[in-house]
């Protein structure tokens, strides 16, 4: 993905949760999926996805390798000037593959960038959504408004631990560093 995603700095950030989510939308390649946040208001698992796709997102476990590749892709996208992406056409998103296809089609440089960093388009989307769901769930611990809008069912507890242990790196990534 987070981010594209700062909400996970070593100390809590005072800006409102929704503004933090919007800030995430400005960060390189991670913006490919953040555009769905306004559609689902703080829930990054699009409601129109099949249960199998939602389960894949929940079961996806972040690790250092995945995060480092996401970070490298994000930094490279930012350096290449890949602009924030428009929100996906929700009427055409019926699966993760649909979401990935729209994201890949939004800028001709994105598919090669994703591939260069060892992701399939689908895995890239799953990893980003898993990261952002975990970031938002960590933020929701101290933000009742966000907690009320976040469906915890789709958050992997292992990813919460990953975000907790990688706060500085995630914060740097989300700030475009």
What does this structure look like?
The protein has about 180 residues and is mainly α. It has one domain (about 15-175). It is built from eleven helices and no strands. The longest helix is centred in the C-terminal third of the chain and has 20 residues, at about 120-140. The protein starts with 16 loop residues before the first helix and ends with a helix. Residues about 1-45 have low confidence and may be disordered.
3D shape? globular
What is the C-alpha radius of gyration, as a whole number of Å? Answer: 14 Å
Structural class: mainly alpha
Determine the N-to-C terminus distance.
15 Å
Report mean pLDDT, rounded to a whole number: 75
What is the H/E order?
HHHHHHHHHHH
Largest sheet: none
| Helix residue percentage | 55-70%
Number of domains: 1
SS summary, helix count: 11
Percentage of β-strand residues = under 5%
The counted number of beta strands is 0
User: Can you tell me the residue ranges where pLDDT is under 50 for at least 5 consecutive residues?
Assistant: 1-43
Can you describe this structure in just a few lines?
The protein has 177 residues and is an all-alpha fold. The chain is built from eleven helices and no strands.
């Amino acid at each position: 993905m987070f981010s594209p995603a700062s909400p996970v700095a070593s100390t809590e950030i005072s800006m409102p949760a929704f503004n933090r989510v919007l800030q995430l939308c400005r960060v390189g390649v991670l913006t490919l999926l953040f555009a769905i946040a306004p559609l689902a208001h703080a829930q990054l698992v699009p409601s129109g996805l099949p249960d199998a796709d939602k389960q894949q997102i929940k079961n996806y476990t972040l690790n250092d390798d995945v995060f480092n590749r996401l970070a490298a892709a994000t930094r490279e996208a930012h350096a290449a000037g890949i602009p924030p992406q428009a929100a996906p056409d929700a009427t055409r998103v019926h699966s993760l593959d649909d979401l990935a296809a729209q994201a890949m089609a939004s800028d001709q440089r994105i598919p090669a960038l994703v591939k260069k960093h060892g992701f399939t388009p689908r895995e890239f989307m799953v990893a980003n959504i898993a990261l952002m769901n975990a970031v938002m769930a960590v933020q929701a611990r101290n933000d009742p408004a966000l907690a009320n809008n976040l469906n915890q069912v789709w958050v992997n507890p292992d990813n919460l631990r990953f975000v907790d242990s990688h706060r500085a790196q995630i914060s740097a990534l989300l700030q475009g560093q």
